[in-house]
Amino acid sequence: MFLINFLFLLLGFIIIRSYCKKVKVKSTYFDAAQISVVIPFRNEANHLPQLISAIQDLSIQPLEIIWVNDHSEDNSYHHLQHLPNHHKIYSLPTDVIGKKNALKYGIEMSKGKYILTWDADIVINANYFKSIQNEPITPLLILPVQMHGRNWKEVFYELDYYFVNALNKGLSSLLQPFIANGANLLFEKEKYFSTASYRSPPTIASGDDMFLLHDFKLQNYDCRISTTSELIVVTAAPKTFNDFLQQRIRWAQKTPQLKDKHLRIVSYLGITIILLYLVFLFSDKYLLCIFLKILLDCLILIPFLFVIQRKNIVPFIPVFSIIHPFYILYIGLAVKFKKVDWKNRALTK
Asked: DSSP letters along 163-219, please?
């Protein structure tokens, strides 16, 4: 019991301390006029109008916005007509499919020194590029994503997403970042092409964000996390448990392929804490165990929820804490046995 107390308190202290740590300020900053935005999309007709509207409201526009159509089967393309000249619209060749290929195609067609990748289902702040010009230049900048839930189930999905991102932010004071999200990711184009192994295996049903981060770290490029409020992009939480499960399995599939030492450290630490929790949960110390788990999750999540502007879901943390370990075990089994579907394309391992 002493070990679980020690792990909980040590991890919580590290997380809290990271939010008090000052970042060294550099003398050069990103310039919106040097940024190419790349947005891959497939069957996003329901989301594109809100993103296009948000882009039109931007106080500063980037150099260009590149849309890459991954063989959409709805009327997504219709929403992209009559856009200003700095918008470029491409479609993948018939023999090329998938988000990772759409990203690569868009990056190859870009003119900017820096690439900003967005998902097609996000909403952005009007001062996004005004704010990004206050960010010190770094080879890879992991930008904040808010996953907004509308009911208690979606809030659980949201908290699960924030839990890992809070660890990523909190432990970055000791380790380098171990996860990245292509929904809001900024990096230097030249260094992107210099990392020869960034392409993920074809059976990994999602983008190359984690693989790109891993390869940048292998090259000793500086990778940094920003939690600036005006750089938050908002996306909807999964609406059904199956959507949520599919998303988490796609993310979990990347982990064995990455061989990232920082990701492994966090994974082993997480597994240790969960196993200790489950062991003590079925002992006479179960009430203390539940209390410590809730305390740890509060230490990890609350600072991040305030940063990500979702402090209103703090009351849901105790329920999340109790359910979360069992859900993690379920995901671990589902990764091995459940077929993955990605945009109506079934992929197996």
From this structure: HHHHHHHHHTTTS------TTEEEEEHHHHHH-TT-PPPTTS-S-SHHHHHHHHHHT
- The amino acid sitting at 229 is S
Q: CB atoms < 10 A from the CB of 281, how many? A: 16
Q: What is the dihedral of CA 222, 227, 229, 235, to 10 degrees?
A: 100
Task: Judge whether 289 and 277 are in contact, CB under 8 Å.
Answer: yes
Burial class, 184, CB count within 10 angstroms (exposed 0-12 / middle 13-18 / buried 19+): buried
**Measured between alpha carbons, how far is residue 163 from residues 34, 70, 167, 277, 303 in Å?**
33, 31, 6, 17, 11
For the chain, the maximum distance between any two Cα atoms, rounded to a whole number of angstroms, is: 68
Question: Which structure tokens are listed for 80?
Answer: 């992209």
Q: What is the pLDDT of residues 123-150, one digit of tens each?
A: 999 999 999 999 999 999 999 999 998 8
Cut 0.70: pTM above it? yes
Please enumerate in sequence order all residues whose Cβ is within 8 A of that of 170, keeping only pairs 6 or more positions apart, or say none. 14, 15, 16, 18, 19, 300, 303, 304
Query: Using one digit for the tens of pLDDT, what is the confidence trace for 85-94?
Result: 999 999 999 8
Residue 45 near residue 79, CB atoms below 8 Å = yes
Rounded Cα–Cα distance for residues 179 and 167 (Å): 10
Q: Which residue has the higher pLDDT, 289 or 47?
A: 47
- Helices and strands (DSSP H and E) totals, the chain: 11, 12
Q: What is the dihedral of CA 112, 115, 119, 123, to 10 degrees?
A: -70
